[in-house]
């Protein structure tokens, strides 16, 4: 009996960890996630001037909804006044994470990200693009997802911020029940298919190469079951031909699981496979960037990877893509889109070499996490 008692363990246990939501939380909400794993920091946030009254108001607002799931979701939206208080609390807290533009700005992004996820996945707001969001749901499916997310937000999870406010776990649960955990699908990026290239980068003499990398932008297929689009195949031919000149250290293929909506194919994976199988490009010369969903994030994410690989800060890369996309990347409209969607420019165009080739110098401040785009932060 004593042995059975030992195996049975204590009558009650603490919150259990959830590896998937923990990884998603760390990826999307690094500031709030770090606080959730540090009880002292979490207490400091909760007791910052004005926060306790706001948190009580938020709890009462949700409780007043009773069993109305739409009302309960709406109650978790952070108002401008509440978000401002959270920003001040974060700015006054001992730094938990690095943010190139400060903790207050990161807190702003994370609170805004919670609001975007709740509005899109719970309240039916149109997603930023048609490929995002929960998709078309029956009333029964929508109700089941809202109920599950509501329950999950109140079920203790080790290392969470639930003691501060349930909205973070509610947003994470909405993504989980909608199978939209794309943002952690290939972690860690330094391993897996990228391991050989990352190992090579550590000992590479970058000065031997005119360009640190060739960035091959995604252009996802629109037909269900199609792993690569016609334009994508054209991009690969251009990339293989350009790589054969021998003055580029790496090919970065960039594209996520985006087109068409719900596709099982990750564009970067398919491009990598084709470069190896069709063009005999060495695997240690290819780096996959499997998260980008738009041209803006093609360049931002590739810039992040180059930093991780140790590429020289003043080094140049080349962008290879079809003439239409290449012209767009060089346009004022694209510059404006970067400013609006990313908050900065992921780099600058140095010069045009041909209709399909631009010389690009990546920015070094391209590591901001923005959960307002939860599938590609």
Structure, described:
The longest helix is centred in the N-terminal third of the chain and has 19 residues. This protein has a six-stranded mixed beta sheet with strand order 3-2-1-4-6-5. The chain starts with a helix and ends in a 15-residue tail after the last strand. With 377 residues, it is α/β, with parallel strands linked by helices.
In round numbers, the mean pLDDT is 91
The proportion of strand residues reads 5-15%
Widest β-sheet, arrangement of strands: 3-2-1-4-6-5
Shape: globular
What is the structural class?
alpha/beta
- Tell me the helix content: 40-55%
Distance between the first and last residues' Cα: 52 Å
The total count of helices amounts to 16
What characterizes the major β-sheet? 6 strands, mixed
Can I get a quick summary?
This protein is α/β, with parallel strands linked by helices.
Q: What's the SSE blueprint?
A:
Elements: H1 2-8, H2 19-28, H3 30-36, H4 39-46, H5 51-63, H6 69-75, H7 80-92, H8 103-121, H9 139-154, H10 167-177, H11 195-203, E1 211-216, H12 230-243, E2 248-254, H13 267-279, E3 286-289, H14 295-309, E4 317-320, H15 323-329, H16 332-341, E5 347-354, E6 357-362
Parallel strand pairs: 1-2, 1-4, 2-3
Antiparallel strand pairs: 4-6, 5-6
């Amino acid at each position: 009996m004593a042995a059975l008692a030992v195996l049975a363990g204590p009558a009650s246990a603490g919150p259990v960890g959830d590896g998937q939501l923990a990884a998603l939380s760390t990826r999307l909400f690094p500031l709030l996630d770090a606080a959730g794993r540090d009880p002292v920091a979490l207490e400091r946030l909760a007791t910052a001037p004005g926060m306790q009254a706001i948190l009580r108001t938020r709890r009462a607002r949700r409780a007043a909804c009773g069993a109305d799931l739409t009302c309960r979701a709406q109650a978790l939206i952070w108002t401008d006044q509440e978000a401002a208080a959270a920003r001040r609390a974060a700015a006054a807290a001992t730094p938990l994470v690095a943010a190139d533009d400060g903790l207050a700005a990161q807190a702003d992004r994370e609170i805004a990200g919670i609001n975007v996820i709740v509005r899109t996945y719970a309240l039916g707001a149109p997603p930023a693009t048609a490929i995002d969001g929960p998709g078309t749901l029956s009333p029964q499916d929508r109700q089941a997802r809202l109920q599950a997310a509501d329950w999950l937000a109140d079920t203790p999870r080790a290392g969470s911020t639930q003691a501060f406010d349930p909205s973070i776990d509610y947003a994470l649960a909405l993504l989980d029940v909608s199978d939209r955990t794309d943002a952690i699908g290939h972690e860690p990026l330094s391993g897996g298919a990228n391991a050989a290239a990352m190992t090579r980068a550590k000992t590479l003499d970058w000065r031997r190469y005119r360009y640190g990398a060739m960035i091959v932008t995604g252009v996802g297929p629109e037909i269900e079951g199609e792993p690569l689009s016609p334009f994508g195949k054209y991009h690969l031919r251009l990339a293989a031909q350009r790589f054969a000149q021998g003055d580029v250290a790496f090919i970065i293929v960039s594209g996520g699981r985006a087109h068409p909506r719900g596709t099982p194919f990750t564009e970067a994976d398919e491009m990598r496979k084709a470069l190896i199988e069709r063009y005999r490009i060495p695997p240690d010369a290819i780096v996959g960037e499997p998260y980008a969903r738009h041209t803006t994030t093609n360049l931002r994410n590739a810039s992040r990877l180059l930093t991780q690989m140790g590429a020289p800060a003043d080094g140049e890369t080349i962008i290879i893509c079809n003439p239409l996309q290449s012209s767009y990347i060089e346009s004022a409209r694209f510059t404006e889109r970067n400013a609006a969607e990313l908050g900065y420019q992921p780099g600058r165009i140095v010069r045009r070499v041909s209709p399909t080739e631009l010389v690009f110098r990546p920015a070094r401040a391209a590591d901001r996490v923005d959960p307002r785009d939860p599938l590609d932060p």
